[in-house]
Amino acid sequence: MTAASLSASPRNLRLRANALWLAAPAIAFLIVFFLIPVGRLLFLSVQGDTGNLTAEHYSRLLHTEVYWRILIITFRIAGLTAFFSLLLGYPLAYWLSQLRENRRNQMLLLVLVPFWTSYLVKAFAWMLLLGNQGVLNRLLGGAGIIDGPLPLMYNEFGVIVGMVHAMMPLAVLTMMPVMSGIDTRLSQAAGTLGANGAHRFWMVYFPLSIPGMAAGGLLTFITSLGFFIVPAFLGGRQQTMLAQLIIIQVQELVNWAFAGVLATMLLVSALIACWIYNHLFGLASLSAGNSTTDKTSSAWTRRFGFAILEKLAWATSAVTNRFAGKSRGRLLPAYVALIVFFLVVPTLMVIPIAFTSSDFLEFPPPGYSTRWFSLYFNSPIWISATVRSFGVAFATAIAATVIGGFAALAIARSRSRFGGVVFAFMLAPMIVPRIVIAVGLFYLFAQMGLVATNLGLVIGHTVLSIPFTFVAIAAVLKGYDWRLDQAAASLGAGRFQVLRLITVPLIRGGVISAFLFAFVTSFDELTIAIFVSGGLKSTLPKQMWDDMILQLNPTLAAVSVVVLVIVTAILLVADRLRR
Amino acid sequence: MVNVDTTNVQPKLKISGLGKRYGEVVALEPTDLTVDAGEFVTLLGPSGSGKTTLLQMISGLTEPTTGTLHVDGRDETATPVHRRDMGLVFQHYALFPHMTVGENIAFPLKMRGTPASEVRERVRETLAKVQLEQYGDRFPRELSGGQQQRVALARCFVYRPQVVLMDEPLGALDKNLREHMQFEIKRLHREFGTTVIYVTHDQEEALVLSDRICLMNHARVEQIGTPREIYSRPKSIFSARFIGLSNLFVGKVSDAGDGRIVVANSNGSFEARQENCGPLVNGKAGLVLRPEQLRPGPAGAGENDITGTVTEIIYVGSDTRLVLTLQDGETLSVRHDPAATLPALGDSLTYHWPIDVAVVVS
Fold first, then answer.
1. Which residue, A435, A460, B30, B252, is the most exposed by fewest CB within 10 angstroms?
2. CA B99, CA A521: separation in Å to the nearest integer?
3. Which of B58, B96, B153, B157 to mutate to test the interface with A (most CBs of A within 10 A)?
4. Where are the CATH 2.40.50.140 domain residues in chain B?
5. CATH 3.40.50.300 occupies which residues in chain B?
6. Residue A19: pLDDT band by 50, 70, 90 thresholds?
7. What pLDDT is recorded for position B32?
């Protein structure tokens, strides 16, 4: 008995280490279509005309003031976006985390639907709302509150509103799991020890939620750094961001070297943000949500932090004591309703516009008609773009689920010390700004003849989707009890039967939602499509982008409604299947 | 002098008609309980018996549906949790993970606005009391389960709350550590002279720790009394079964006159004293006999006797227990006299007991 188990254990160990090989396809795929193209693009920035190493492109950056200004603006907008997303999203995340699990999953849809709604649709909706003739100015003017239209768009205000609207769901979805992981008994314990509501929040709950805030802040900041859709439509010249500049360098000036310089700036900024985050909190809490912050920060900063929190607590209790007890309890729900309104309703503005009888984007619509929908459905360009988007999304979803799924399995089954490296590598496409990946892939595809092909699109979208499928499947596998497999095997099930009857049924929910998330990621994807698809090979988002740049029209509203319905339907299906 | 007398008359805690329902579900029927100052009272019962609900209502974490709570004669029913001067020790300790051991213990003092120098002094003193002087700067997760439990106790006792409530505080510890911590809790209770209300489902723990036990079942109080009273004079079949090992003969009760009653079933008729008989329902009742009350011997040696076949011999270390199967298939547990030779399986044995020890309940 002892001898048998002894001889079995080294074999087991080898098997477990071997499990990491399941990640090989994912690693190979990401090396070829992610690491190499991004590396090449960065290398272009230090390459001279004859292939020699040079710093000339960087000196151009250093000596041109406008680029500095754009860099600063990019940081400013990304920073403000992250700040407001956290500030405004925190109470919503808190509210969600306090709900019972069933109800929370329902209410989470109020955040998930805006999260997955196409950035283009959201930007379009804000243009309808904020324009000089837009809904808000019409309503305010109609009510006699303002004389002339307020400048709500083509300025920093418009960009920040659009960016916060676009990024807050990401902030909430990142903070919420950390918050719901905070033991409610800790607040109760603080209560029995004499802490009132303000002290319970500031001294116990808030410090425990900081890792979630940091992760949310990091993700929104990095995503905002490489963002171009909102500033392109809602900003003016003064709000040009780095990613827009890269697009201009590649598409209009064909200056690859300088695009490489800008991409490097962007990537280095993102990596610095990650480094700071990692230094303070450890990247592990990005996916796990454990709160082990204390060890790294020194005792002195901790004490200082606590002193501030204690002051905040006394201040808060001094203020709240003046309010009557009744109204205090309604403050949070009222605020949450307001924020959910902000997240959901602007996007819905496309619906009345889509059914307008007018040739213009008037609000309120002068009459009802479905002519814009029939225009869409009878347009070969729109329909072929839609069909292509569906096909590409389907292929992407299959590829990303298989590749990411096996990588997740590898991580779950392997005890290799390289597991952490592989884990980080799988998430890397989420950290590297999309625009950098897209330009790098464009350069690679141009040499491989994959530009303007469906295959090129699928490859690019798969790179972007792998982190999502990997995380979704890794999450179910993490909660999966492998002893069930052993139990089934001991009861006489063969390897294949174990897989078919035990493993797959239990992790099916995670796999399906991974598939659907990859589908939506691809279906909504614009950055890669801007470069890799074009002309007759446009995807739906690319076609929308081209139309929006050219001229806003009610067809766009109709298309937006179609996109909205498709994405919402997919999310509802994913939600139903997950239970 | 007169003042001292009145405070002695005044109970520390007076619970009257305190009850809780969630819609149709009754978590606790209206319950009465008084606890004297310095007393150690245990709420004992199986899960779902309402003991934790009662504790939570005393602490203020749960709002009662009915009834009142008086502390030192003051109505505290509506006082919010943080203004009740009570300490609660949680089952899983609920230590703040982002604070050091010292900061955890200082927390309740800070909430009361204690000056910093005094906070330092009291924390040091209390850490010494639970033998954790060296651990003030560690984080809770760096401590073992038993040490975490001691921190939880220290955090509770440091501000000298008038009442300390404990919700299965030893539930997560292994058996040896649990016994050690029971002593620790007893010692703290003695040293601080605090009133303690303790929740557990472990009857042994309740017997060891309590001045009085409040036995609960099905969302209501089954019996209140000292451990000795509840063990030797259970008032119901539930009490008899829940505390200690007991044998139960359920049968028809009839009056035998002369202050005696008879419980009869297919195993025979057994006599008991009227005074040891609780209120009965439908003339049916159970006769309760503890294993150690039965003595081996020939039939007719005692006032009651019973014969059965040995079907199980259980060695539990300090003791050997025999299980006898009776005529009708019922079983009887008895303690084997260590001086006598061990019987073999299948032997027929007779045991007897004096009339005074049996209790009749329903």
1. B252
2. 41
3. B96
4. 252-361
5. 2-232
6. confident
7. 94
Given CB atoms, is A291 within the 8 Å cutoff of chain B? yes
DSSP H or E segment with residue A178:
helix A156-180
SS3 content of chain A, % helix, strand, coil (to 5): 80, 0, 20
CB-CB neighbors (< 8 A) of A191 in chain B: 60-61, 80-82
Alpha carbon of A274: minimum distance to chain B alpha carbons (Å):
23
- By the 8 A CB rule, do A433 and A74 touch? no
Number of folded domains that form chain A: 1
User: Residue A161 in contact with residue A85, Cβ under 8 Å?
Assistant: no
Contact A522, A439 (CB under 8 A): no
Residues of A in contact with B60 (CB under 8 A): 191-192
| A462 pLDDT above the threshold of 60 | yes
Q: Shortest CB distance from A207 goes to which of B82, B98, B156?
A: B98
CB contact under 8 A, B94 and A293: no
Distance from CA of B207 to the nearest CA of A (A): 27
In a domain, A383, yes or no: no
Residue pair B118/B139 in contact (Cβ under 8 Å)? The answer is: no
**What CATH number is given to the structural domain containing A444?**
1.10.3720.10
Tell me what the mean pLDDT of segment B76-104 comes to.
89
The fold for domain B252-361 equals OB fold (Dihydrolipoamide Acetyltransferase, E2P) (2.40.50)
Q: Look up residue A288 and give its two tokens.
A: 């796990």
Pick the CATH number of B2-232 from 1.10.10.60, 3.30.470.10, 3.40.50.720, 3.40.50.300: 3.40.50.300
Cβ-defined contact of A193 to B59 (cutoff 8 Å)? no
d(CA A256, CA A246): 9
Residue A371 domain-assigned (yes or no): no
- State the DSSP H helix or E strand holding residue A285, giving kind and residue range, or none if neither: helix A284-287
Binary contact (B61, A310; C-beta < 8 A): no
- Going by pLDDT thresholds of 50, 70 and 90, the confidence category of residue A282 is low
| Residue whose token pair is 């639970």 | B130
- For chain B, say whether A306 makes contact (Cβ under 8 Å): yes
Q: What DSSP character marks residue A500?
A: I
Taking Cα atoms as reference points, which of A123, A555, A178, A545 lies closest to residue A347?
A: A123
Determine the structural domain holding residue A457 and report its residue range: 19-38+65-352+397-578
Verify whether the Cβ–Cβ distance B111 to A294 is below 8 Å.
no
Candidates B61, B81, B96; nearest CB to A186: B96
Helices A325-348, A65-98: crossing angle, 10 deg rounding: 130
- Interface residues on B facing A, Cβ-Cβ cutoff 8 A: 59-61, 80-84, 86-88, 90, 92, 94, 96-99, 103, 107-108, 110-112, 137, 139, 155-156, 159, 165
List, as one string, the DSSP characters of A328-344: HHHHHHHHHHHHHHHHH
Q: Of A209, A122, A116, A126, which is closest to residue A170 (Cα–Cα)?
A: A116
Q: Considering Cα of B299, then B305, then B306, then B310, what sign does the dihedral take? A: negative
- 8 Å CB contact between A567 and A523: yes
